[in-house]
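Example A, followed by Example B.
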Amino acid sequence: MIDPLSDMFSLVDIESARCTRFEVGGQWAFRFPPKPALKFVAVLRGGCWIILQGEPPFVLRAGDTFLLANAPAYVIANDLASEPEDGIAFFDWEHSDIARHGGDETALIGGSFTLSGGNAQLLIDALPPFIHIPADDRAAGILRATLATLDEELGAGDMGSTLMTRRMGDILLVQALRAHVSRVGSENAGWIGALGNPQIGKAISLVHNDPGYRWTVGELASRIGMSRSAFAERFRTQVGIAPLDYVTRWRMHRARESLRRGQATVAGLAADLGYSSESAFGNAFKRVFGRAPKRYWRDT
């Protein structure tokens, strides 16, 4: 059986942007602009606050890690009364991956990853903007160790470092997602949480393992041992869309990636994904992405 989360990762290219270390002492506050990336940060020692727009300050302690998805603007500070300085302008990020200011009582290490490929938004949409993993969570130690290894790989530039750093991005993200679902519960973690539900997760796996099958709500419900109505309601509640809408969207995301990579024709994809004609496939593609497949690639 194909693991749906791994299946989603196969449609997205995760590339390491850089790894940085931040050491600071005294009273301080720094603001950082939004960045279209995944950003992992581990607090190695000391502690601070993180302030996201519209949210109350959140305390971070030594050993904690966190993930910012499609990183929004934020402030990190150990003194909430201080006026935040521009973190990008203040430090010489262009010439060093290590920033120091006023001491080293607090130390953080962070890794940034960019997402590329036409389906990057698919993964971003499945993530909450902020995931906190406290120090006493088993995953926090794994994340800290992986970030430290990533730091070494990026600095050394040894053979295979590009492949290593990309795989570490996958590992960091999977570990953060596991920890997030474990803490908030599968019912509160959207599509990612639904993967851990014995019944809804199985239905999603069925779709991913055979997207070209002509699925109906009734057959999916029967395969997982639920009534049609109960399945449809629970699926929509946990995933956010109706079961057959999910089937269509997943087919189209797979199709878009195949077309982007030049791995298939529109006619071939229509047949493989269970459509009776190229026209029917094109209409489904247009409903999801707003343009017919051939025009989509001509205009992008």
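Example B, a separate protein, is given below in the same form.
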Amino acid sequence: MTNLQVYVFAAFVLAGSAGAAGAQDAALGEKVFLKCKACHQIGEGAKDAVGPVLNGVVGRKAGTYPDYNYSDANKNSGITWDEATLKEYLKNPRAKVPGTKMIFPGLPKEEDIDNVIAYLKQFGPDGKKS
């Protein structure tokens, strides 16, 4: 191998490992979701609990799941839950939506947040995995 080939190979290896480090893992996210399960349900047959059902949450306007009693702060936040807003919210719910009634302090690890979002993204509004 020439020096140029070695550099090109090293660049591919580094790029691949950086991509893997930033990848979302829904299976790990399901484990992280156990922290959320005390208040939220997801999947077919899910029902509102302390918190609303999270089926189809990615892409849904905040405060709109039918028949759940949201705080005014959440209903009036103007947020549509995409990955960026969910990342902020899951890191620190009260900072993202002051006045929310969600008492969860947030997930401190970026990796856990990414993984739980990957898990949530699997569920459509009907609760079925895509």
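On Example B: The chain is about 40% helix and 0% strand.
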